[in-house]
Amino acid sequence: MFASRQAAPTLFRSTSRHCHGPVLLKACAASFSTASTGNRHGIIPRAACVNLHQQAPSSTTNPHANTSLRMHHGESSLKESYDHILVETRFPSDPSAKGGGVGLITLHRPKALNALCDALFDDLIHAVMAFDHDEDIGCIVITGSTKAFAAGADISEMSKQEFANVYKKNMFSQWADITKTSKPIIAAVNGFALGGGCELAMMCDILLAGSKAQFGQPEINLGVIPGAGGTQRLIRAVGKSKAMEMVLTGNRISAQEAMDAGLVSKVIDSEILVDEAVKMGFTIAEKSGMAVRMAKEAVNVAEEVSLSEGLRFERRMFHALFATKDQKEGMSAFLEKRKPEFTNE
Ligand code: CAA
């Protein structure tokens, strides 16, 4: 359904506008064509796509081209390349689309089934924060490979640790940075989402499962328990009995079971999962960024506070949105029977 830009995309534009450095159009073209044939997600290894935005006629395909260099000058811009993830920015292909783009992050440590070593998580947090600060991005998608979203925290890294060390460094506390973004994150889970992989997915705002996805908290088999939210977020998603069963037996559940239990919101054919997640990201990105952020905040507050406090918080957020231009635009557009043009103000 989706393809790289060279393969005449119909539903999205994929841009390498975050890549810069010496001119190397050939390398970029090669990487695009590899993406269109060998990589069905059109993922462009960032190290290989250098300066394409200065060479390609991006202004004809990308209305955001003028802003392509902007985020490199800020502290919170994407890095030139990452060791353990791939990053890509996609925009809707319809040139009249007013919405923002989607930041797609692919965990990429294939030999270890995307085991979440410290370096991978550092990369992930960096890219998530960069997308969160990028004005052109309205939603973030995190995915892995077809075999593994992530097979958990890195066991070889953990196996050498002692109590004093893990306690003093408050091991895994930094993972929660993922939950501090103001923009929604969609987890597109194919294959194994085990231990920390399942916990990472649960830190996201929407979970979509590929038909062959498997979820589990197998830490009990290693003589430990989940340490990044598995005992806390899972019970909120699937209830006590199912959460206990998963945490105490270490047994995995299928995508359909995860759907039936309320852990994921959709099961999608694994071949098209990522594209569908990006499409959902576009739908979110075309809304008012103000309303989207406040909606995310309000829904997440529900997990932390009493109902009356949550209702109060929701109402205050609702009131606050009347101070935005987007509320005026959204309601005027409805009454004038036209599409709203939100400016995220
Ligand atoms: N850490 C480090 N390496 C891992 C890993 C992990 N969590 N999971 C898989 N790997 C590595 C394997 O060691 C193997 O490496 P080598 O080829 O060098 O031997 C490679 O990935 C492929 O794995 P398998 O050969 O085991 O692949 P498989 O298809 O036979 O099995 C699997 C797949 C069922 C996911 C199995 O790899 C497995 O059970 N992995 C561990 C899952 C796990 O226990 N996760 C929880 C970790 S603890 C945690 O996450 C704590 C927390 O709360 C944050």
From TrEMBL:
UniProt key word Lipid metabolism: yes
Record PROSITE patterns: ENOYL_COA_HYDRATASE
Any GO BP: fatty acid metabolic process
UniProt keyword list: Fatty acid metabolism, Lipid metabolism, Lyase
Lineage top rank: taxon: Eukaryota
Family annotation (InterPro entries): ClpP/crotonase-like_dom_sf, Enoyl-CoA_hyd/isom_CS, Enoyl-CoA_hydra/iso, Enoyl-CoA_hydra_C
The enzyme's E.C. designation: 4.2.1.17
Family matches, as SUPFAM superfamilies: ClpP/crotonase
Matching PANTHER family: ENOYL-COA HYDRATASE, MITOCHONDRIAL (PTHR11941:SF54), ENOYL-COA HYDRATASE-RELATED (PTHR11941)
Homology family: Belongs to the enoyl-CoA hydratase/isomerase family.
Name of the featured protein: Probable enoyl-CoA hydratase, mitochondrial
